[in-house]
Amino acid sequence: MANHSALFELVRVRVLLFLREPEALFWVFIFPVLMAAALGFAFQGGEAPTARVRVLDGDGASALVERLSGAPGVPLELEIAPVAEEPELRRAITSGRIDVLLLPGDDLELVFDGQRPEGAAARTAVELALARTAPGAPLAEATLAPMQERGSRYVDFLLPGLLGLNLMSTGMWVIGFAVADLRQRKVLKRLLVTPMRRSSFLLSFLLARLVFLVMEVAALVLFGALVLDVPFRAGYVEFLVLTLLAAFTFAGLGLAVTSRAQTLQGASGLLNFAMLPMWLLSGVFFSYERFPEFLHPFLKLIPLSALNDALRATMLEGASLTTLLPELAILAAWAAAAFVVALTCFRWR
Amino acid sequence: MDRSRRYRLRRVVGETHKGAAVRVRGLVVRYGALTAVDGLDLEVRAGTCMGILGPNGAGKTTTIEVLEGLRDPDAGEVEVLGRTWSKDPQGIRERIGVQLQETDLQRKLTVIETLRMFQSFYREKRDLGEILELVGLTEKRRARVDDLSGGQRQRLTLGCALVNRPELLFLDEPTTGLDPQARRRVWEIVEEFKRAGGTALLTTHYMEEAERLADDLVVVDRGHVVARGTPMELIASLGATGVVRYAPRAGHEAAAAAISEAEFLALPGVRSLRVGNDSRELIVHDTQAAVVSLLGLFEARGIQLEDLSTHRPTLEDVFVALTGKQLRDG
Q1: Chain-centre distance of CA B222, in angstroms?
Q2: In angstroms, how far apart are the furthest CA atoms of chain B?
Q3: Which of A105, A281, B149, B280 falls 20 to 30 Å from A136 in CA-CA distance?
Q4: Is residue A87 classed exposed, middle or buried when 0-12, 13-18 and 19+ CB atoms within 10 A define those classes?
């Protein structure tokens, strides 16, 4: 009986303290939405931009321009540039001011930057234009149809990633920081001389976390659905199970990482050290498939990768719990390991 | 208003312990190569206040932390309210109240929220309105800890230590850093607790605090007890009736320093000599004779004094005589 009331009080205190921390409210609720808004608008789909092509002056330059401008269904921005400007034009490709530089001659040379998506797209457009204007062009009938379907745009890829990122960073920061702060100011030591159960104390952080989880997830999902038109095809059970498990996992990781940190600075360093790889490797902003193939099995095991994969599968494709089982298992394993570490290594003073 | 009538000594939950509240035998605590507590013995009778005096680093806080269950001893027996930490830790925690030396509370909670949280940990729960009144924070109940003065915050930590109607209260330097008025208010709360039959264990730097609150004292130095007794007994153990302190005027220091210890001790009424940084003190058993002969000696040497004062021996003098250190190191 006494312990129920203790747990309730501890959770209440955590919730109150969180509500009285305006900065924390900003980082948890406002910042992710702002980030989604900025990235969502920046990468919003739309007409494929017209490729900006420069043709270096010389033999056949004007003939080439005439030929390309006559290509059906491939709009290009074409201009002839003086030979002397070649070095400057090459730099313009690197910085993205133009997309393609054509050097006419016996062997037509096509200069572009394959690292940028616009560069690769422009190269394709130029090649298509050349193919369509070649004698007996086989592709003359094809038209360009850029993907515009909901669920396949960058913003659709991004939003579940941001949600995952938010679940991770809020979980780890809020809990790791609060515990390190209590330890540094010796509040933990004072609690230790009371009959308070250690488990109630740790559990209170998790339960308080859940109170805000609902609001935090809802803010981002609603913003995505209403403003960015990101689809939400997840089943409610699947989505609930996944976000709850994720919240527990990252809360546990936050506790584990900071279980011995004596100062706030120490805790903040450890948290950053643990989270930075996940920011980069877990497919938040771009798919981890871009890393070399042999790394994929390992990258998939990172908790945030598992969460992001599962969030995308359920939010965009409506995947069921059975489909999500591998990711759920990875998260559960991390959660279990984190709590074992947190409970055995936890420093109360 | 008589608050003591409101204080119910008998706890609702469990039996009140009858024998010695604290029993420590041969306590040893080491930090690596350093032995912080070195064979300390201590017994606190139920219903009394025991004061532990000692210079910084004497092992006071370490001892108290062992008694609070925060630290494991390397050797020795420790019994708190008839229980041991290894067998019945929750039983002890339920029955003690603790004010740590530097407790910080959660600053964005209010007074009442803080008390309610602490109260929730215990099976025995004292009415919070009663606690607020006892520590004089009824009007501040909705104020955040952040907005309290140092004295109010200290009274709140004391309130947190009293929410479970403890049989034994640990106070580790409860008034350090407080102004005299705030200090007196803390003392009144502790006296209230004592009047109701509570047992307290106190460490302090302040002699006035020890004299006012403690029934028994131990002086601790380098990890063990160097003297014990009531404040009166300890003062009497000096065998002196007064302390004479003098400081030579500028330009006369060398001449004054040239007087040998033997010359001082040869003066009538003088028992011993103590040399400080900027003053010297004579422990005397006949103040009048000592002052007269001391002034005669200075007169004969042509030494002029900046200052001369006498006082009755205090615990501070006992302390310096025993440990050779000032209580408040600097």
Answers
A1: 16
A2: 74
A3: A105
A4: exposed
CA angle B70, B75, B81 (to 5 degrees): 55
B112 contacts B144 by C-beta, under 8 angstroms = no
Give the domains, in start order, of chain A with CATH numbers. 51-146 (3.40.190), 154-345 (no CATH)
pLDDT in tens, chain B (330 residues): 444 444 444 555 556 677 889 999 999 999 988 999 999 999 999 999 999 998 888 899 999 999 999 999 999 999 999 999 999 999 999 999 999 987 788 999 999 999 999 999 999 999 999 999 999 999 999 999 999 999 999 999 999 999 999 999 999 999 988 899 999 999 999 999 999 999 999 998 888 899 899 999 999 988 889 999 998 898 888 888 888 988 888 888 888 888 888 888 888 888 888 877 667 888 898 888 999 999 999 999 889 988 899 988 888 888 888 877 665 543
Structure tokens that stand for A232 in this block: 């939400």
Partner residue opposite B100 with nearest CB, options A5, A8, A189: A189
Inform me whether the C-beta atom of residue B113 falls under 8 Å from chain A C-beta atoms: yes
CA gap A122, B115 in Å, rounded: 69
User: How large is the ipTM?
Assistant: 0.83
pTM of the model: 0.78
Residue of B nearest to A11 (CA): B117
Q: How many CB atoms lie within 10 A of CB B5?
A: 8
For residue B166, the distance in angstroms to the closest alpha carbon of chain A comes to: 11
**Chain A contact residues (CB < 8 Å to B):** 2, 5-6, 8-10, 13, 16-17, 20-21, 182, 185-187, 189-196, 349
- Show the 3-state SS of A144-181: CCCCCCCCCCHHHHHHHHHHHHHHHHHHHHHHHHHHHH
Interface test with B, best of A194, A197, A198 (most B CBs within 10 A): A194
